[in-house]
């Protein structure tokens, strides 16, 4: 609940206020303590973008600044003109205490790991999880868990263990027997870096291929066709098909056609009109009569044919083609380990199934449905991946503080994400064993003030001894990320892209999507404003389709939740004007 603290210097001034101003001040204090925040106004030209004015009596205003999390501090109450002048002269440095050690507190078994360099922390497996990483399994294994439960680290250790086991059994056969894969390119690079640390022996390391799922599909199709496929994303394709549908006079939007093709036709591997007419369109709210299905099928078939002539593919289509190629050939690997499985499309699951022979320790997949940023619903059993009796749920977080969890979980509201074989819902009693500072949410008067406030926050983290390489700053899109990087550099803070591999004494800057699966001590999310999140372009792409719009909001909610949970020690969120409705639902 929000609260209003009183600056010590103000207490002596309170007695000198007139009774009506005192009553107005007390009324404001009561409003904060009850959670009914009074209306405040930004201060144009203020050095500190977080300072606000709150009316307490006619022509009298209080100067309020953010304190910690949802807490605020009242500095002074003065005639409005004087309060405005006072607020403009405040420096952010004067409002916050000197930084303390940000390292979270935790149980004894983690104390050494928490105090170790963060590079070492990133590959530290919880003592209780070694058994799962090193066990011999009779078939495929699925591990689920909420944020901070160590899923990604577990995946890396599992791949390292399988490689070491293969090297011990076949020392003379140095080949890629293990695939460690994920959806995101930045995460794939991070997984590769961590594996390098765990497997310093080059012969053992050479037995693991670390690659994105799209890169695997691309290489398989290219080896079969001898031509380099050109890929397009779904939004680009939706625009192309929208224009084609309008030109053809069809009553379907480009977004609907792309979604129908990807979520029904490709997802179910439908190869004939009769199969499409008979199929169940699970998850697709808009009903299609048989005669409309015929029209959709013929339209999609024609548009896809044009794409093939051009050599243009989307990732799920490319994976479907790769699965067909592998089904006719030999498996590529003995073992497959998947990190962040929740974002894989059914065609990508089919490709992975075909890439490894069915048997002991064939697939080991880890993920969290609540960090899903795609809208694909998957039944592993229907794809030939049997995990019955070999499912594990990690319930206790040890890589994120309880305070950050408490800020992130409400973003999901009552939403339960689409799962994989029933794996939806945060585990009952999901909690963290770590504790640290409260996350900070800062409202700024304008974009320039937001960047100034960010720079101040980053300097505070650096002054607290946080290595710049363990600080990440992210926005919803590349435009925000580039602006932030430019301003931080101008302020003397070195930056590098989130996608940069290896160590770099610089703050990592990128998009929220780029944070997927990564881990930092401190994370700052900027531009979490209602006009930027959800993005206007994504809303417009829904083309008035309420179902598509709800899907967009759902995906953005999960994206923001995922981004918030990339911080171990400290989380900072800023916005200009109204915060995103995903953070605070807007009044009707």
UniProtKB/TrEMBL annotation:
GO terms for molecular function: 3'-5' DNA helicase activity; ATP binding; DNA binding; hydrolase activity. It catalyses: ATP + H2O = ADP + phosphate + H(+); Couples ATP hydrolysis with the unwinding of duplex DNA by translocating in the 3'-5' direction. Residues 124-409 form the UvrD-like helicase ATP-binding domain. Its EC number is 5.6.2.4. InterPro entries: DNA_helicase_UvrD-like_C, DNA_helicase_UvrD/REP, P-loop_NTPase, UvrD-like_ATP-bd. Pfam families: UvrD-helicase, UvrD_C. One of its GO terms (biological process) is recombinational repair. ATP binds at residues 145-152. The keyword Disulfide bond does not apply. Keywords: ATP-binding, Helicase, Hydrolase, Isomerase, Nucleotide-binding. It is an enzyme of class 5 (isomerase). This is DNA 3'-5' helicase. It comes from Nocardiopsis kunsanensis.
